[in-house]
Automatic annotation (TrEMBL):
GO molecular function: ATP binding; helicase activity; hydrolase activity; RNA binding
Xref: CDD domains: DEXHc_DHX37 (cd17982), SF2_C_RHA (cd18791)
UniProt name for this protein: Activating signal cointegrator 1 complex subunit 3
Residue stretches making up the Helicase ATP-binding domain: 248-415
Domain Helicase C-terminal residues, every copy: 445-693
InterPro entries named in the record: AAA+_ATPase, DEAD-box_helicase_OB_fold, DEAD/DEAH_box_helicase_dom, DHX37-like_C, Helicase-assoc_dom, Helicase_ATP-bd, Helicase_C-like, P-loop_NTPase
Keywords: ATP-binding, Helicase, Hydrolase, Nucleotide-binding
Organism this protein belongs to: Malurus cyaneus samueli
Region (Disordered): 128-211, 525-561
Biased composition (Basic and acidic residues): 129-142
Superkingdom in the source lineage: Eukaryota
UniProt keyword Heme, yes or no: no
Keyword hit for Chloroplast: no
Length: 1122
């Protein structure tokens, strides 16, 4: 058939055309389709095999297009050409067996395979080239010898490595064309098709896309990180590592992402590393992470730097008073207040590519404001082509606050839930809830745990520093620990490894004494419940083995030296080196017991804790927006906080949480704590937002509408009045003084003090006082319970030493009137003069940590003042001398101007209602009496008027940070707070050349409370009388000195300007109307009018002088250089 038909007689295309059949028609005639041929001796595999082994002459399917002998030639031709048919059929049989284990046909249809070759036009479009005149087209091959020549020529060309995956990608990328305009592959000229198949390396012109592209694909970026094997092994145990792809895909595809994961999931340390490895910390930007607490920002930066094996110059931190940020920083941990300050300088945060808001569930004030601002910054950055990613990380499921807030996010951001690495925690509730003696209940519960339960650390939650020290003293007395103790058999049992339950023989379980009278007659079925986890699988018996009961035991108070307990306190004011002890392993033969406040709830994770004792209480600072009184109250915690505390027991192994309250009480808890913004003053926040040129500041935008429910108001009318007052304040534009105040990182009251301190060289002293007032708890507490008799004697000696130094720092005479602020100033000055050493602080009752913070803040405020007042030339002088008496008087006035709304007046003898008002003070906002705190140096002085830093509520309402002021200063320095009477006729009004204004003496009363204040000289009130008086002093020559020469020649006395019949004279009316028209009632306004019109007042003034002087007056007008 080859000789009879040949290539010339009937080519592949010619044969089909001669038979009147197209490609598809031929398939249909023979009853074949290429899908059906998939099962014919593994045809797909054969084609691939021919190409690889060279059996297909290096041509593949393109080479077969020229063969016209397919029908006329059977498989016998293979043997005639010297091919081993048996071997080949063995290969086919092998391929058949492979085909049996291949993917099903339905799955294969989803992929591009050789079974799809030739069907439709999709597979050929990738190889189609634009038809252009070509001069290098090879001649058609018309014989087998020509095919052999072509094969040899193709073998001489460099071979390309076959890649089926690349071909599939090319085929997937080939756009589809409408079938009507496409040219069938079978209808193409043979030469063109052969050219396309023979020259795959020839560049092809790109085809227009079938659909418009939506976004450009970004290249994948991976920054390698050289971690140690130990770090990598520890990372792989974190739950968030399994969600890395999900997290990064969500971040890449969304501008805002919320990641929700409980404490221990690893989100804080690992998400920044994910972003770094993905290239988000490249040369054009950095990764910023905000933390609500300084200790978290510092410790997390050190942890991430260690894990990534990078320098602290690359992974840095920045907190309020310190930081190690450099130009090389790519990952920056900071407090939320630091980022808010950066927004003031650079609103778009152009140096960041990603901002991570951590611990958003705590709803701190700065975190809430940052989320609100960033929700506007992110779209602005997107419009500018500099996208910013915002990641909000929360430790609880409190994400509805963000996702359901359409005013915050117009498009609901995706939420990624990450499971925590949490072991099961068994929660035990008390049958009865102790109302008062919860500290004693904690002691009894710890004693039972230590005597009866297996090894494992104990974490106790209490409310305050005094309670912590008291419980530590009782536990150390009950289970004394001495360094030279040796482990007895029982102690060795206590030191058994974790998860090993002690034998009851080692610890004979003592049944608690049960007082039936303490139980209700009605059966109580709440008992100890499993709520958060299953029972410990390793425990012998059921979970009831760890039910300690609620009764008292006489053995609790007995001292047992055979069971030493290593007791450590933990609270925020504790020295850092003492806080670090809780992270160290306890001594051999002892059990660790940490007595802590809520600082151990989220900020710190203590290793080795298996048992948690939760009293269910917390001491919080409450702020009354109406009265300004802040008080510490012990209240119940929220359910979220209770769950956080329980979770501390399941970090390293299954644990137990003993809640000293019933399940019914727990169900009455609030689900979440109220946001901080509803519990503290927001003046500084409003000032900062106004400084950012945010004009529309709404109360609803600052916090939830439910915030007004938190404020203790008496009636709905007061609520509406408060809203109106807030709306009026929020709508006021910021003044130049306000912009200056916004540059200082302190409260607005203190910032105003700094802005008014340039006189009398008081800036260094004002900066020191403001720093001391900003940093709380300068002095040690000596009223706390002592652990031992020796410590009690030591505290007594320190208290006597502090009282002696307090008198020295307060000074004598006029200096003492500065009061507690003078003590702060003297303490800081003395500490800095001695070099701010720890020994000096401990000897004189000062907190060393607070003194270091004051030093940092002084430097920060000094820099801020120098930036505003470039000619100030301030510096932090460690040898600063005490202020003079004149400077102290000036400082008292500055303090009054800054703390004007914190004014109090001593109750007079005739105003005493009962004994509770003795030695009391009255404030403008409180109906109840307030008192000077006993620790104040003015406690026995009792000045008539004082200003205070704050009011705290304990057994009484006490004022702290007290300073005495003079009553005549109040109307002069606080005119907005006073109601002034009519100007006094004696002394009469006068003109003040220094101020350029008309002044008068006016009596006043302090607003609302009606305190009568002495008459003081103030500016004359606005009105027509002020214009008349200014005209009088102008005619008398007191305003403009050159006009005094004409005062003796006036046609009428200037005093007639004040008469009721002054309108009867035209000259008085003309002068008065001219002044009123230009609002000229002071010297500066008159000069401005003359600059605008040099002939201003000439015509009116000429009516007051003889006509002979008119020409001379015109030549010298205006009578002052403008």
């Amino acid at each position: 058939m080859v000789d009879g038909m040949g290539w010339d007689g009937m080519g592949w295309d010619g044969r089909m055309d001669g038979m009147g059949l197209g490609w598809h028609g031929w398939i249909g005639k023979d009853g074949l389709d290429w899908d059906g041929m998939d099962g014919m001796d593994g045809l797909d595999g054969m084609v691939d095999g021919w190409d690889r082994d060279g059996l297909g002459w290096g041509m593949g399917w393109d080479g077969w297009d020229g063969m016209g002998w397919w029908d006329g030639m059977g498989w016998e031709w293979i043997g005639e050409m010297g091919v081993d048919v048996d071997g080949w059929m063995g290969r086919a049989e092998l391929l058949n067996k492979l085909n049996e284990v291949q993917a099903p046909e339905a799955e294969m249809k989803l992929l591009y395979t050789t079974s799809k070759l030739g069907i439709g036009e999709r597979m050929y479009q990738a190889k189609r080239v634009t038809q252009e005149p070509r001069t290098d087209v090879p001649e058609k091959i018309r014989s087998i010898s020509g095919a052999n020549k072509r094969r040899h020529s193709s073998e001489s060309e460099p071979e390309e490595e076959p890649s089926s995956s690349e071909e599939e990608e090319e085929q997937k990328a080939a756009p589809e064309e409408p079938s009507g305009s496409a040219v069938s592959a079978a209808a193409q000229p043979q030469g063109a098709e052969g050219e396309a198949g023979a020259d795959p390396a020839r560049p092809k012109a790109p085809l227009p896309p079938a659909v418009p592209s939506t976004a450009l694909c970004q290249p994948a970026v991976f920054i390698p990180v050289d971690r140690s094997a130990e770090v990598q092994e520890a990372r792989l145990k974190l739950p968030i590592l399994a969600e890395e792809q999900v997290v990064m895909e969500a971040i890449n595809e969304n501008p805002i992402v919320i990641i929700c994961g409980e404490t221990g999931s690893g989100k804080t340390t690992q998400v920044p590393q994910f972003l770094y490895e993905a290239g988000y910390a490249s040369s054009s930007g950095a990764i910023g992470i905000t933390e609500p607490r300084r200790v978290a920002a510092v410790s997390m930066s050190q942890r991430v730097a260690k894990e990534m094996n990078l320098s602290h110059r690359v992974v840095s931190y920045q907190i309020r008073y310190e930081g190690n940020v450099t130009d090389e920083t790519q990952i920056k941990f900071m407090t939320d207040g630091v980022l808010l300050k950066e927004i003031q300088k650079d609103f778009l945060l152009s140096k960041y590519k990603v901002i991570i808001i951590d611990e958003a569930h705590e709803r701190s004030m700065y975190t809430d404001i940052l989320i609100g601002l960033l929700s506007r910054i992110v779209p602005l950055r997107h419009k500018k082509g500099l996208p910013l990613k915002l990641i909000i990380m929360s430790a609880t499921l409190r994400v509805e606050d963000f996702t359901d807030n359409t005013r915050l996010f117009s498009v609901k951001p995706p939420v990624i839930q990450v499971d925590a690495r949490q072991f099961p925690v068994t929660v035990h509730f008390n049958k009865k809830t102790p109302l008062d003696d919860y500290s004693g209940e904690c002691f009894r519960k710890v004693c039972k745990i230590h005597r009866m339960l297996p090894a494992g650390g104990i974490l106790v939650f209490l409310t305050g520093q005094a309670e912590v020290h008291s419980l530590c003293r009782r536990l150390r007395k009950a289970f004394p620990y001495q360094k030279n103790n040796t482990c007895s058999a029982v102690q060795s049992a206590v030191c058994t490894p974790l998860n090993v339950v002690l034998s009851p023989l080692l610890f004979p379980q003592t049944l608690p004494k049960i007082d039936l009278s303490s139980y209700s007659v009605v059966p109580v079925d709440e008992g100890d419940e499993d709520r958060d986890g299953d029972s410990d699988a390793d425990a012998a018996g059921s979970d009831l083995d760890l039910d300690l009961g609620d009764g008292d035991s006489e053995e609790d108070e007995k001292s047992d030296s055979s069971l030493p307990l290593f007791v450590l306190p933990l609270y925020s004011l504790l020295a850092p080196e003492k806080q670090a002890k809780v992270f160290q392993a306890p001594p051999a033969g002892t059990r660790l017991c940490v007595v802590a406040t809520n600082v151990a709830e989220t900020s710190l994770t203590i290793p080795g804790i298996k048992y948690v004792v939760d009293c269910g209480k917390v001491k919080k600072r409450f702020y009354d927006r109406i009265t300004g009184v802040s008080s510490f109250r012990v209240t119940w915690i929220s359910q979220a906080s209770a769950n956080q505390r329980a979770g501390r027991a399941g970090r390293t192994e299954p644990g137990h949480c003993y809640r000293l309250y019933s399940s019914a009480v727990f169900m009455d808890f609030e689900k979440f704590s109220a946001p901080e913004i509803t519990k503290r003053p927001v003046e500084d926040l409003i000032l900062q937002m106004k400084a950012l040129n945010i004009e529309k500041v709404s109360w609803e935008g600052l916090c939830a509408a439910a915030a007004f429910k938190v404020v203790a108001l008496r009636s709905q009318k007061q609520t509406e009045r408060l809203k109106q007052q807030l709306a009026a304040k929020l709508s006021c534009p910021i003044s130049p003084l306000g912009r200056v105040m916004a540059t200082f990182p302190v409260a607005p009251r203190y910032a105003k003090m700094l802005a008014l301190s340039r006189q009398q060289d008081c800036l260094p002293y004002s900066i020191t006082i403001v720093s001391a007032m900003t940093v709380r708890e300068l002095f040690e507490e000596f009223d706390r319970p002592a652990v031992s008799e020796a410590e009690a004697a030591q505290l007594k000696g320190k208290r006597a030493r502090f009282l002696q130094m307090q008198k020295v720092w307060a000074g004598q005479g006029p200096m003492q009137k500065l009061g507690d602020l003078m003590v702060m100033l003297g303490a800081v000055g003395a500490c800095e003069y001695s070099g701010c050493t720890r020994e000096f602080c401990e000897e004189n009752g000062l907190r060393y940590k607070a003194m270091l913070e004051i030093r940092h803040l002084r430097g920060q405020l000094t820099t801020a003042v120098n930036s505003v007042c470039t000619d100030a030339g301030l510096y932090v002088d460690p040898k600063m001398q005490p202020p003079t008496e004149a400077q102290v008087t000036c400082l008292r006035q500055i303090v009054l101007a800054g703390l004007g709304d914190h004014l109090a007046r001593r109750v007079q003898a005739e105003e005493l209602l009962d004994d509770k008002w003795k030695n009391a003070y009255k404030t403008a906002l409180l109906e109840d009496p307030v008192f000077i705190h006993p620790s104040s140096v003015l406690f026995k002085e009792l000045p008539e008027f004082v200003v205070y830093q704050e009011i705290v509520e304990t057994t009484k309402l006490y004022m702290k940070g007290v300073s005495a002021v003079e009553p005549e200063w109040i109307p002069a320095l606080l005119p907005p707070y006073c109601h002034f009477g009519k100007p006094l006729e004696n002394p009469p009004p006068s003109y003040c050349p220094q101020r350029g204004r008309v002044r008068c003496h006016r009596p006043s009363v302090f607003y609302r409370v009606g305190w009568q204040l002495p008459a003081v000289e103030v500016d004359y009130p606005e009105g027509i009388d002020r214009y008349k008086l200014f005209a009088r002093f102008l005619l008398e020559g007191k305003v403009i000195e050159k006009l005094s020469s004409y005062s003796q020649c006036l046609l009428s006395s200037p005093l007639i300007m004040l008469k009721t019949w002054s309108k009867l004279q035209p000259r008085t009316e003309a002068l008065l109307q001219a002044l009123v028209k230009e609002n000229c009632d002071n010297h500066d306004a008159l000069l401005a009018a003359w600059r605008k019109n040099p002939k201003y007042l000439l015509a009116a003034y000429r009516q007051w002088v003889p006509e002979a002087m008119h020409q001379d007056l015109a030549l010298n007008w205006p009578p002052v250089a403008v």
